[in-house]
Specification:
The structure is a single chain. With 803 residues, this protein is α/β, with parallel strands linked by helices. It has 4 domains: 19-36 and 451-542, Helicase, Ruva Protein, domain 3; 39-84 and 318-448, 3-Layer(aba) Sandwich (Rossmann fold); 132-283, no CATH class; 548-790, Ribosomal Protein S5, domain 2 (2-Layer Sandwich), CATH 3.30.230.10. It has 27 helices and 29 strands. Strands 22-23-21-20-25-28-29 form a 7-stranded mixed β-sheet, sandwiched between helices. The chain has a 5-stranded parallel β-sheet with strand order 7-12-15-1-16. It is elongated and about 165 Å long.
Amino acid sequence: MKPLHTPLPADKLYTPCDGTLLDFGTTEELADADVIIGQDRALTAIHFGVGMARPGYNIFALGPPGCGKLTAVKEIVTREAQNQPPPQDWCYVTNFDQPAKPLALGLPAGVGKRFAQDMEHLCEELNTAIPATFEGEEYRTRAEDIEEKARIKELTSLNALRGEARKQNVSVIETPTGYAFAPVDANDQVMGPEQFEKLSEQEQRALQETIAQLHQKLEKLLRQFPIWRKEAKERIKRLNREFAALSVGHLIADLRQRYAEHARIMEYLADAEQDIVEHAEEFFPRSDSSSPFALGGRRNILSRYRVNLLVDHASSHQAPIVCEDLPSHGNLIGRIEYQAQLGALVTDFTMIKPGALHQANGGYLILDARKLLMQPFAWESLKRCLQAGEIRIESLERTLSLVSTASLEPEPIPLNLKIILTGERLLYYLLCLYDPEFRDFFKVSADFDESMPRSGDSVALYARVIASLARREDLRPLDKSAVCRVIEHGARLAQDSQRLTTQLRELNDLLKEADYCAGKAGRKVIGRDDVVSAIEHQVYRNARVRDHVYDAIQRGTLFIDTQGGAIGQVNGLSVLSLGEFAFGQASRITATTRLGSGKVVDIERETELGGAIHSKGVMILSSFLASRYARSTPFSVAVSLVFEQSYGGVEGDSASLAELCCIISSLSGLPVLQSLAVTGSVNQHGQVQPIGGVNEKVEGFFDICAARGLNGEQGVIIPAANVPHLMLREDVVEAARAGRFHIHAVDSADQALELLLATPVGTPDEEGRFAADTINARVMNKLAEFTDIRQRLNEPSPKNGSA
């Protein structure tokens, strides 16, 4: 039967690129262009965030993947960083008062590296100069003199005690355990026990008292020995400090002169000199120097005076730009490493390692928001640093009390940098919703758009961008026809004939594959056929599921009719997305009507397979039915709706127009043309609203019909508001041009009904009645029948008369 409405002409189904807007032969003739186009709003936001020096004005660049967020951020911050001087170098040095709390030194760019090298050279000098000094003749002479005087003092005191004892006939005897006293005879021979017993009692008592007194004097003298020895050691230490100061003084003096302008270095050098002098003995050559433990001790004393150059900008000429691909807790704020020694973990300030915040301090840090949020405690650590305005290196294990190993507490480093996060919009909105601190730290949102207007100027700019991408990837140049086809594909990706996609990652991939196709064909220039081949290969690689679905329809496993008519049965269209590939899928929607109370049963919702938006669409169409057909009479009908052979979830309202037409067909008894498929949502007033994926839906039904053979009656009904979105495949456009396939655009449900049921809808007269051969008249008659039956069923039974 001939349709009541004229289908869209072929020129409405595809908007080709106007080649007259492009004045070149190949892209070699075009100048380079910024590959970030159509993002004026986002770029303005990034420039504002980068230029705003106030705290908290960090940037979140949000948008879909492939729209150039990271590229735009890098280009802008690179230009900004070139106008800024390199920031300070940062070093960690020993805190001689509290070794567990190393000191942070901020030095002008380049000074840190020079200072670290000078201190390393100082350590080498100390390793040889101090031992050489203490091995000198002067030191040995003076040290031996001190030791000799101490020894002579002890011997003199002991000899005096011996002389006093001898005068009293007592001898001082040295034993392995110390000293002892024994009486002697006239010949100065020690008395034996028998000889001592021969003495008189008075003589024995006198000797005993004398020995007791001598014992007291000996004990007093022995108590003096440690004091004298300590005094000797102190004199040795003073001597050591004197000689150490002489050997170190000129070395430190050179450093003081070199770094006189740096107050923190001057303070450190003063403390270091004092510490070297006080620990001069540790530089002495030891007899057990071959022992690995002695060597470790020597290294330890030298490491006290080394410099841990944490951040070095000696070779930098601008502010740093850091992109951290793994923003873990340690990679962000730095870490303290440990070394195993004798079964224990030890560390010192030289094992402090910098993080991305240290490297980017004074510049720009670019992070992927998703990767950051996936790392345990990384987000909280970053916020803590931003809140405090400083980088405090804390071991995550120690923070969580997972280990009890002694660790360091490095002095925090002031933080001054700009952080740019990149991520999808959902992440940004979720952070705004669930993290109350997020907006305090990221006040600037740079929202990247997925598409840009398609006009004469933008098409010419788009061609330059294509040329720039080809040159950047070292591809063959494209001729004008190839560029036109890429631009048309950009409109297809934008799902709008009047706009172009800004997600250049997909276009970049297309150019690479077109270059491959040109190479396989032996061409030096990429032509339109190469672009078409690349697109077809992309579809073929991803279309396994689509082909299986279409095969099931052809074999009759999935029931889809493409000719004839059926009451209460319509072909609905949906889009199935698998990764980056989407295709249209036809589904049979059926409706049954019967006597009831006006309830529309959505079987999908009843079985919990229907989503909220789909359920909303069903409720809207039920309201439309009631408002049109039950204004003054009861809506005495029950309706059941279902997607046949659907075993998964159903979501979206794009099938509500098809469902409405299916219900009207069941009520009117008019068959739905199975040669047509329909998509679109409907509101309570019967207006048809636009939907997404219109190109894929049209092409999906076309593929099914083409496989069975086009008969000139098949086609698709779409919302009129979706006509500007049409960028159909060439074979679909050619079939429409030849009259073998049709695309109908409708504004209202009535237009769709007239197409699907091949019958006029009808308009009410002054009394609200419809012409007999119209859809509305048939529906009203059926509803009136249901109402009469319902009234008869509700009438009370007559009572029997009494006898």
